[in-house]
Amino acid sequence: MRIDHLATNVCVLLGSVRPNRNGERLAKYIVNELEKCDDVSVQLIDPKDLNLPILMARYDDIKDSQECPPSLHGLQKALTACTSLIIVSPEYNHAIPPAVSNTLDYFSHAEFYFKPVGLVTYSVGQYGGVRAGSQYASYLRALGLVGVPRVLSVPEVQNTLDKDGHVLVNSLRASFSAFADELMWFDAALSAQRETGLPGHH
Ligand SMILES: Cc1cc2nc3c(=O)[nH]c(=O)nc-3n(C[C@H](O)[C@H](O)[C@H](O)COP(=O)(O)O)c2cc1C
Predict the structure, then answer these.
(1) Per-residue confidence at 194, pLDDT binned at 50, 70, 90?
(2) Which CATH superfamily does the domain covering 8-195 fall into?
(3) Which residues does UniProt call coiled coil (predicted)?
(4) Which of 76, 2, 86, 73 shows the shortest CA–CA distance to 42?
C-alpha cells in the first residue's frame, strides 16, 4: 500500500451489531492493515459500543439537550476529524443494514462534506453483498461523501478471515491493497482541495 501524504485519519464503521457478527473479523483486518501505515491514524466506529437509539432527531437538533445520547458527541468529533471513511457493510435483505444508516443519519452533513468514502461489503454467501453495494451510491451521495470507484466485496467472509481478522484466503490482500491505494489517493486529493474552501454554502 502506497501512502505519500500526511495527516490521514480514517474512520472504519462496522455495519453490524449482531452477536457473533462476521463483520468484526473484516473490520479488524482493515484496522490492523491501516495501523501498519506510518502516516495513517485509524479509528474503529462500532455501533455496538455507541448503543444509539433508533434515530428520532438529528445531532444538530439535540446536541445541546439532555436527549442527546452521550456517545453521539464523541462520534461527531471523530467524524469531523476524519479525512476519509470506510464502511464495512453486510447486506441485509439486499439492502443497507440499519447499523450503518442509524449511525450516519444522525449527521447532516458537515461531518461528511467532501470526504472520500470506501465501501467494503461482505456476506456469508457467494455475492459478497454487492446488491447492498449498489444501493450505497445514492445514499453516500446524499450524505455528501465522495464514493471511491473501487468497492471491495468479500464473499464467504467466514472462510476468508478468522475471528481475529487473520487472512485465510490470500487474494484478499491484493484486493484490499488496491482498494486502500485508491482511497488514499482520494484522501490526499480531497484533503488538499478542502483546504482551499468548500463550494456553495457548506
Ligand atoms: C437480517 C439479515 C438479512 C440478510 N440478508 C442477506 C442478503 O440479502 N444477502 C446475503 O448475501 N446475505 C444475507 N444475510 C446473511 C449475511 O450475509 C450473514 O448473516 C452475515 O454474517 C451478516 O453479517 P454480520 O454477521 O456481520 O451481521 C442476511 C442476514 C441477516 C441477519
Answers:
(1) very high
(2) Flavodoxin domain (3.40.50.360)
(3) none
(4) 86
Nearest CA to ligand 1 atom 14: 92
Quick one: what percent of the chain has pLDDT higher than 90? 93
Ligand 1 binding pocket includes 123 (Cβ within 6 Å)? yes
CA 44 to ligand 1 centroid distance, Å? 21
Kindly report whether the global pTM for this prediction surpasses the value 0.70.
yes
Q: What's the 124 CA to ligand 1 centre distance in angstroms?
A: 7
Amino acid identity, residue 102? N
- d(CA 25, ligand 1 centre) in Å: 15
Model confidence pLDDT, tens digit, residues 112-160: 999 999 999 999 999 999 999 999 999 999 999 999 999 999 999 999 9
Q: Is 99 exposed, middle or buried (0-12, 13-18, 19+ CB in 10 A)?
A: buried
Report the C-alpha gap between 110 and 91 in whole angstroms: 27
Q: Which three cell numbers stand for residue 91?
A: 447486506
Whether residue 3 has pLDDT greater than 60:
no
* Spatial CA neighbour of 91 closest among 163, 26, 147: 26
For residue 61, what is its C-alpha cell? 437538533
Which amino acid makes up residue 116?
A: P
Phi and psi for 187 in degrees, rounded to 5?
A: -60, -50
